Amino acid sequence: MQAHIITIGDELLIGQVVDTNSAWMAEQLNEIGVPVYQITSVHDDADHIKQALSFALQQADIVLLTGGLGPTKDDITKRVLCDYFHTSLVEDTSVKDHIEHLYQNRPQVMNRLTATQWYVPQSATILPNRIGSAPIMLWNEHNHIVVSMPGVPREMEIAMEEQVLPCLQQWLHKQHINTHIYHRTLTVHGIPESALAIEIEDWENNLPQGLHLAYLPKDGKIRLRLSSYGECTVEVVEREFARLTQLVQPYLLSRSK
Length: 257
Description:
Helices cover 39% and strands 26% of the residues. The chain is of the alpha/beta class. The chain has 2 domains: 3-174, Molybdenum Cofactor Biosythetic Enzyme, Chain A (3-Layer(aba) Sandwich); 182-256, Alpha-Beta Plaits (2-Layer Sandwich), CATH 3.30.70.2860. The strands form 3 sheets. A 6-stranded mixed β-sheet has the order 2-1-3-8-7-6, with helices on both faces. A 4-stranded antiparallel β-sheet has the order 10-11-9-12, with helices on one face. A hairpin with a 2-residue loop joins β7 (136-141) and β8. The two termini are 22 Å apart.
């Protein structure tokens, strides 16, 4: 069980906007036991979006897209997804009622472009976007989940927390998929990365199958992250983390999940 995140927008690829969405989404997916296989950023270009989606569906069971759902001409995600899934846009009265209520005190916002927001792909399941006008669209196709969300970080976060994550957990339960990701991290200081690797080499070479150690050096410190992606029990991870902690005790600064 893996996920692929696709962020859409020229602004991401010219450095105008930093993609904070992907890191936040990956963290949330890890919390429910779904590892992220890849994160991809693409232009506001129909062919580029379709190519990225096709590749993602070959590699992952869950594909989450953000961006390109506004009412202006450069926001093409909804139309591209209609084309990809061979469906058409239809008026959704629930989305229309929500948007009209959302902007009832802002009449200048209610115009012909805003009205395009309540047209949604006919084949998609539409999830409520409590704080915005862009609908959250979900497809369950051939045992794969595709979800398209707004790119505005706060809208995306609320969409994930209130709608998408509960849907994914329910889907995983129905598939009888028991997922669990477990990380333990410690930080050391005062020893070069290569020297540290030599000191813990015997322990690392004898790690149980399914446990992985990552070295994450930064600013003169080294984080060591011990991870299991559902292959080891929590007890095994904790046992090996305790052994690692003892080995690096002279350099230890902190420990965390």
